[in-house]
Amino acid sequence: MKLMYFNDYRLGVLKGDHVVDVSSVVQSIPHTGPGDLMNGLIARWADYRGAIEQAVAAAPGVPLSQVTLRPPLPKPVNIECMAVNYMEDGTRTEPAPINAFHKSPGCIIGPGGTLVLPDIPASVFEGEAELALVIGKPASHVPAERAMEYVFGYMNFIDGSARGVVPSNNVFYQMKSRATFAPIGPFLVTADEVPDPQKLQVRLWVNGELKQHFNTDDMAHKIARCIEWVSSIHDLEPGDIIATGTNHRGLSAIQDNDTVELECEGMGRLSIKVRDDLKRTWARETRLEREQKGLEGLTPQLTGKYAKAR
Fold it and tell me: For residue 170, is pLDDT > 90?
């Protein structure tokens, strides 16, 4: 099932190319807003799934093209992002030590949203293509062999990054937790629709040009291990997000007025805009293209504020 929020945060289910409003089915779930409602539905999924399926079967829905999509998970308690979690098409000789960082839930935006580049002296801004999993029940010290039992579903996740921020010993928080730096959606896809999350194609386009193209089978620390490790550090709750990392070789600068689109296989396509009030520019080359040219370091800033300083 593909769950979504649309218009004024009505809860919907995708039915072909239509969306069926199932808000009335879940009103008994205690909630104060759409975030609490979705988290509550995830926690009580077994109790509500049948009624939702009946409602979807009985209604034609409205065309998806006629609604405004919202973030499908507006208020997770935790967003944990795996760091350096791909073998980079075999160019890494061994996995990096397992690692992650916390991204503020306040960073979330949805389909059609705008990722805003802040007025800071960053080397470059990038949007990383990632498959995210969503936790379905309370998780603490979960062993890898049982970890997949705790997955409610999956969705597209763009990890906004401001590279090269200073000081260097305070990087991840400044780089990753900027407002709007966590686009998600358009749907939350339940786990039963994803036969093997470790064999999904992931594609990201910038202004229609394919930049990132990789498979989740290249993941260094697989999903079960990620859940095991994160849940050994702190408890996870229904609706929490773990973003599973990216293959960095296709990363390139994102800049003002860009359209960025992400499609993890079976998750629908997430499309967002980029806004930079400073109108800074960078070359369009990917990290792999720089490497093939024998160039070192990140793509340099070409014009705009901070360009000379960097």
Answer: no
Beta-sheet pairing, 79-82 with 10-15: unpaired
Among 201, 226, 5, which residue's Cα sits nearest to residue 133?
Answer: 226
- pLDDT tens profile 28-65: 999 999 999 999 999 999 999 999 999 999 999 999 99
Maximum Cα–Cα distance for the chain, whole Å? 62
Alpha-helix runs per DSSP H in the chain: 34-43, 45-58, 172-176, 223-233, 287-292
Nearest to 3 by CA among 73, 66, 51, 67: 73
Print burial letters for 96-109: b (CB count within 10 Å at least 16), e (below 16).
bebebbebebebbb
- Is residue 203 within 8 A of residue 129, CB to CB? The reply is yes
DSSP helix/strand/coil, 106: helix
Q: Is 292 helix (H, G, I), strand (E, B) or coil?
A: helix
Q: Round to whole Å and give the CA distance between 99 and 86.
A: 12
What is the β-pairing status of strands 201-206 and 182-190? Answer: unpaired
Q: What percentage of the chain has pLDDT greater than the value 70?
A: 99
pTM over 0.85: yes
Q: What is the pLDDT of residue 167?
A: 81
What mean pLDDT value characterizes the chain? Answer: 96
132 burial level (CB within 10 Å; 0-12, 13-18, 19+)? buried
Q: Please check whether residue 162 is in contact with residue 174, taking contact to mean a CB–CB distance below 8 angstroms.
A: yes
Where in the sequence of the chain do the CATH 3.90.850.10 domains occur? Answer: 79-303
Q: For 64-115, write each residue's pLDDT tens digit.
A: 999 999 999 999 999 999 999 999 998 999 999 999 999 999 999 999 999 9
Q: Domain 79-303 is classified in which CATH homologous superfamily?
A: Fumarylacetoacetase-like, C-terminal domain (3.90.850.10)
